[in-house]
């Protein structure tokens, strides 16, 4: 599992959304230990030099990508001409492009400044897997998880590639390319970033399901003693140590989600904001095209751009879910105390994807706002159209 995840992250490093961390044995304590031996001083100096060079090259690569994005942004603003009568369209397109560029730059900063939190998150995922296997004797079904991750990644990449290709062909055909060529790298980077975060959320959801399965077994052991099987050790399920192990595994998952919010919260907020703005604009332009303003085929541009976001939003809604438990009535006082503590922990430490509680992800509310904005804009266009007809008739 860890090897596959590291392989995927090396591909993410090409887009500047992941910085390969310095290995743990390249610490100051390690240099001191090696320097105590005369024969290892040269080796320590060589390793330290190679590590510093690698880190410097990564920072230079991120700086080069950031400068390239800024240069493309400025060149796009300079080269884009405002067509007569389409000032509002130019303003909206510029606003969408600006939000995408700012989000792109925030991803670079998060990759560089939050690399330690990112690495701690990856190590914590490995720790959760080991704890589930050793303490809870849980079958984590790593092969099934890898298969589902590959299927999810392949389907979303295929959907994104098809959508981008259709969007490009139709935009060139309609001669309405806008900032697309300048924003192409930014668009691809945002897609890769959201795929990376979806994979993390899917892994956390899988581990949370494993904990929930063990918790259901404890509840079933207490509530349905008649349905017990002979080949299962139910005394272990009734022990205080097993419940403590479940509680500690949930604590590890909660810490992983906190780290996830720490290193990815702001970039996730920027991606959702820019995506919703882009989605609303495409819906608005598609409705205008169907209403007779501009080309009637603008919906061919809007649908490929809106469809991937709709699918990703549905997947996020499925992943960001709460862990529900069933109450039990144990007899032992210590056991009851642990159950009370764990239920309180589930109530207070909710698994939520936020940027340090800066925003709450409510896709239904966001979609309602976007639909209301697009509907009001179309109604305004209808009023303007009727006023123009009255003035021309007079």
What is the overall pLDDT average? 74
Radius of gyration: 26 Å
Structural category is mainly alpha
- In the predicted model, the low-confidence regions spanning at least 5 consecutive residues are 24-29, 321-333
Question: What string, H for helix and E for strand, traces the elements in order?
Answer: HHHHHHHHHHHH
- Tell me the distance between the termini: 73 Å
Oligomer state of the chains in this structure: single chain
Question: Which percent range fits the helix content?
Answer: over 70%
Number of strands: 0
The total of helices stands at 12
Major beta-sheet overview: none
Strand content: under 5%
Number of domains: 1
Label the overall shape. globular
Description:
The chain contains 12 helices and no strands. The chain has one domain (2-361). By secondary structure, it is mainly α.
Quickly describe the structure.
With 394 residues, the protein is an all-alpha fold. It has helices at residues 2-14, 28-35, 38-79, 87-113, 115-134, 142-174, 180-223, 234-238, 240-291, 299-319, 333-348, 363-393.
List keywords for this structure.
394 residues; mainly alpha
Write the layout of secondary structure elements.
Elements: H1 2-14, H2 28-35, H3 38-79, H4 87-113, H5 115-134, H6 142-174, H7 180-223, H8 234-238, H9 240-291, H10 299-319, H11 333-348, H12 363-393
Helix pairs in contact: 2-3, 3-4, 3-7, 4-7, 4-9, 5-7, 5-9, 6-7, 6-10, 7-9, 9-10, 9-11, 9-12
């Amino acid at each position: 599992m860890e090897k596959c995840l590291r392989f995927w992250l090396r591909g993410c490093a090409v887009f500047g959304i992941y910085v390969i961390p310095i290995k743990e044995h390249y610490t100051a304590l390690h240099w001191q230990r090696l320097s105590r031996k005369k024969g290892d001083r040269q080796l320590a100096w060589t390793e330290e030099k190679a590590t510093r060079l690698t880190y410097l090259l990564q920072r230079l690569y991120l700086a080069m990508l950031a400068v390239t994005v800024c240069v493309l942004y400025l060149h796009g603003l300079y080269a884009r001409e405002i067509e007569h009568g389409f000032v509002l369209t130019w303003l909206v397109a510029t606003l969408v492009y600006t939000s995408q560029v700012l989000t792109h730059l925030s991803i670079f900063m998060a990759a560089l400044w939050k690399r330690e939190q990112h690495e701690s998150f990856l190590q914590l995922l490995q720790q959760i897997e080991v704890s589930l296997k050793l303490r809870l004797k849980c079958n984590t079904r790593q092969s099934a998880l890898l298969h589902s991750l590959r299927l999810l990644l392949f389907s979303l990449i295929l959907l994104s590639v098809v959508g981008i290709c259709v969007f490009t062909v139709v935009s060139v055909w309609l001669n309405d390319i806008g900032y697309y060529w300048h924003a192409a790298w930014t668009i691809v980077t945002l897609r890769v970033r959201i795929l990376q975060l979806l994979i993390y959320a899917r892994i956390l959801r899988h581990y949370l399901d494993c904990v929930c399965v063990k918790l259901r077994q404890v509840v079933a052991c207490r509530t349905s003693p008649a349905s017990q099987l002979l080949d299962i050790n139910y005394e272990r399920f009734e022990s205080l140590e097993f419940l403590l192990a479940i509680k500690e595994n949930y604590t590890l998952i909660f810490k992983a989600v906190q780290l996830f919010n720490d290193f990815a919260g702001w970039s996730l907020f920027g991606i959702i904001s820019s995506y919703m703005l882009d989605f609303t604009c495409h819906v608005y332009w598609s409705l205008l095209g169907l209403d007779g303003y501009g080309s009637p085929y603008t919906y061919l541009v809007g649908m490929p751009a809106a469809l991937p976001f709709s699918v990703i939003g549905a997947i996020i809604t499925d992943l960001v879910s709460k862990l529900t438990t069933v109450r039990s009535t144990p007899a032992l006082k210590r056991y009851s105390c642990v159950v009370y503590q764990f239920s309180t922990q589930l109530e207070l430490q909710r698994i939520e994807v936020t940027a340090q509680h800066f925003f709450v992800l409510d896709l239904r509310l966001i979609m309602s706002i976007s639909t209301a904005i697009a509907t009001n804009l179309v109604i305004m266009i209808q009023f303007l159209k009727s006023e123009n007809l009255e003035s021309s008739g007079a």
